[in-house]
Amino acid sequence: MYFSTVTIILGLVASTLAAPTSHTTTNTKRALQSGMKYADFQISDGKAGDALNEALQKFPIDMNNLASVSDSDHEIIKNAREIAESAEADEGGFNDAIDQAGEDSSEGEALQVGKIKNKVLKLALESMDLMIKQAQGDDDGDVQEKLDKEMKKLKTNVQEDQDSKGKTSKAIDFDAGTA
């Protein structure tokens, strides 16, 4: 089952990477940094349609060798996922910003697109965390079930992001950082 899940995420990644993008990318991968602020790794501004690729560029790990991910990088991924989740639902997060702007206003719609991109980030990080746990033998018995559930949500949100391709996406000013 692990192989099929990796195949699914790599398939999502491949289809995302194969799509034309509106920005220039480089092949240079930087190491993950502790102490990153949400603003350093958020992907919610700009345009919709490429959220998974944007998330993976912010957290460059070797998806073909997840057993080699360092403990510190794994911890950063877990912490970033928690922060992305907080940015969605906690006070001052996307839900509050959308309520304040008005769901049907142009700002509210842009914030909703940004919220979907943030969900893709959160779910990609959660999926990475679970796949790293599996690859490193840290499986408490229900990791695969959790991973299958998160991958289903990720696929849904990636599709929603792609369906909104080209729409304006707005980030929030959320003050949180990784350890």
TrEMBL record:
Superkingdom of origin organism: Eukaryota
Region (Disordered): 155-179
Keyword vocabulary terms for this entry: Signal
Composition bias, Basic and acidic residues: 162-173
Signal peptide: 1-18
Protein name: Small secreted protein
Organism expressing this protein natively: Aplosporella prunicola CBS 121167
